[in-house]
Predict the 3D structure of the following.
Amino acid sequence: MFNDYRGVWVYIEQNDGVIEGVALELLGAGRKLADKLEVPLSGVLLGDNVKSLCSTVFEFGADKVYLIDNPVLKDYRTESYMTGVNMLCEKYKPEIFLYGATPNGKDLASAVATDLSTGLTADTTMLDVEVETRLLEASRPAFGGNIMATILCKKHRPQMATVRPKVMKALSPERGRIGTIIEETIGLREEDMRTKVLKIVKDVGKKVNLAEAHIIVAGGKGLGDEKGFQLIHELADVLGGTVGASRDVVEAGWISHDYQVGQTGETVTPKLYFAIGISGAIQHVVGMKNSEMIIAINKDENAPIFDVATYGIVGDAFDIVPKLIEQFRNSRKQKGGEISYV
Amino acid sequence: MHIVVCVKQVPDTKIIKINPRTNTLDRRSAPAILNPYDAHAVQAAANLKKDLDANISVLSMGPPQAVAVIKKSIEIGADRGFLITDRAFAGADTLATSYALSKALEKISEENPIDMVICGKHAIDGDTGQVGPGIARRLDIPPITNVIEIVEVNVKERTVLIKRKIIGGYELIQAPLPCLLTVEKELNDVEYSPLPNMIRAARYEPVIWSVSDLGEVDRTQLGLKGSPTIVGKMFTPPKLEGGKRIEGTTDEQIKQLLEILMDREELFEAK
Ligand SMILES: Cc1cc2nc3c(=O)[nH]c(=O)nc-3n(C[C@H](O)[C@H](O)[C@H](O)COP(=O)(O)OP(=O)(O)OC[C@H]3O[C@@H](n4cnc5c(N)ncnc54)[C@H](O)[C@@H]3O)c2cc1C
Ligand SMILES: Cc1cc2nc3c(=O)[nH]c(=O)nc-3n(C[C@H](O)[C@H](O)[C@H](O)COP(=O)(O)OP(=O)(O)OC[C@H]3O[C@@H](n4cnc5c(N)ncnc54)[C@H](O)[C@@H]3O)c2cc1C
């Protein structure tokens, strides 16, 4: 039915000339899909003076880059980016098109899907393709329960999905790998634009940066109350880590939403993740399961968090955590200085 | 100035209970509420009303019971409410939802032109965040998603200044009226409803439309029929192996854990 739609595309989000990590992760995921379908993998790159980024896109697995370079595209705006992406889709007809589920990626994908009258699966955490039917199987946690829903788009092309950052793996870059650049132009001028980006402000010195943290000590409802949750702050402190929380803790008002890990919070991949008094609901787990080492402390031996933990300790947080804090304080003294976890 | 806020009725996922055996949710345990982000959206409109001579309508698509979220919006400060309800809307994905809502918005606009549409950043059940941008495309007005502050509305110049959340910070955007905003929670605090609003809400009856009231509508774009995405299957994710259990008394457990961590020298390297 859709024989003229071929190829897997990845939107290469760049901000200020720097490619977002999620775009590289999607090239890794897209490579697998493209190989299964035996089609090329392409990056879609829009911006002002961004041609030099193409080599990175090739190194991370793309065969082609569709490039639109125009001063109007300096800052992301729905109207200009959408115009470019729609034009490329109509001209080159991809069968699958993936975007990072970032604020701009979601904004763009939603607008493009509407104009192309096609389906868009939101915040995907698993991707596969059924070779025979060439259907993209984009799965996302379904509302409530430890259940995933696989969303399909049978009758429209391209099949589009946004994918959460940090759930897919980027390939290791292959130095010197090259591909084809297909450059297109759009006839947009600044005068035609309805919106203006007046300035961009980076929150430097932002207190919480969970996504970048190497050690996260996360606490859940099992800590009982805000006072109990202090133990999490103390342990994080002595380890030089960052505090994280389940959504129920955020909803209870023990800590702000900035600290929430999970589907509707931050996705994290630290070297070390402590889950203390957290049951391990799927919406939490999708946000932390790719951590390098996970240590779970929970008094219920059947808590699902133990299924993702590298090491599980069945026990009462109020017995274990204070002793842990004390031990770490001591070992820091023994080592004669700061133990700083990288 | 006419502001229309799109409000959705959702199950309260905070209270919802999950049956651990079947892994499904016990719907009876979930009361229906106004989507929390939409409460912030209505509050944003109510706050604008304090400074501007604004008129606030709310629009919802849903079953007849969704009247409840319109009443709730009246409590927060909306003036009027519209509910579109029809079997033909059922089973809509985001594309079909934005189509139905944009048709209703066009109809509302015929009587009282709309200057601004406000949506929540996402609904806590479907959780896609795609409906707002979809509506903006259909009405061909600029979308400004992830709004954290409405800095200024200049009715005379017909422009707005908006702070929008982006990765690692925010951007300041100028957009024309009409436009569509999707709002984050940090935009405002939803205030306690004043008593007169509560009284008005209790008696309020919204305008109720079915498909045939919406004028020219392409029925093939509505509901299940108009939805390109379908749920293929639902499954419990493959159970992960899980790692080792650390057994013993509390002291023994701690000792073992420390050994494991101390072994991972790289964790202790200074930056
Ligand atoms: C659409 C949607 C989105 C969601 N998004 C997120 C999200 O982004 N992030 C998120 O975290 N959740 C999210 N949730 C909520 C999620 O489903 C769970 O409700 C939540 O993660 C549970 O939090 P919890 O583990 O802290 O609490 P609970 O599930 O109540 O678990 C508490 C745990 O603590 C243990 N415990 C109790 N006392 C002790 C003690 N003294 N010592 C040790 N252990 C103890 C208990 O055995 C239990 O396992 C979402 C839900 C929905 C429906
Ligand atoms: C498990 C599951 C997964 C799904 N996955 C997808 C998917 O990947 N792609 C897809 O296209 N659809 C999906 N859907 C369908 C989607 O939930 C519905 O289309 C829903 O009607 C609107 O989407 P939302 O809840 O995500 O709204 P969002 O887009 O998150 O809502 C944003 C805002 O739009 C406004 N709004 C949304 N709905 C209404 C309404 N009915 N009335 C008034 N205002 C409203 C509100 O202001 C709201 O805050 C899924 C449904 C389920 C049950």
